[in-house]
Design a protein that fits this description.
This protein has three helices and four strands, in the order H-H-E-E-E-E-H. By secondary structure, it is an alpha+beta fold. It has one domain. Strands 1-2-3-4 form a four-stranded antiparallel sheet, covered by helices on one side. The longest helix has 11 residues. The mean pLDDT is about 85.
Length: about 90
């Protein structure tokens, strides 16, 4: 309850989005990879979203849709690492 009271006192897009996600009971995690941006990671069946909220209130969203099929074994993990290593 205290969190909801605090969010209502905040006037920024970040808090507005977090309140809506909380009210909708949608799980999310937060990340901070740049000084002026907080990223909200949302995963729902069939899609993953990265919602970037800039300090000035600008909101940008990346949408990743695809199969949720499980791939067994280390081959896919090795492929991901190999294709993305420095």
């Amino acid at each position: 309850m205290l969190g909801v009271i605090l969010l209502k006192k905040m006037n920024h897009k970040l808090y507005e989005i977090l309140e809506k996600l909380d009210t909708s009971k949608i799980f999310y995690t937060l990340g901070r990879y740049r000084d002026d941006v907080v990223t909200i990671h949302v995963t729902v069946p069939g899609a993953r979203y990265e919602i970037e909220v800039e300090s000035g209130g600008v909101v940008n969203t990346s949408i990743f849709k695809g199969s949720e099929d499980l791939i067994e074994g280390m081959e896919i993990v090795e492929k991901i690492i190999h294709e993305n290593e420095d």
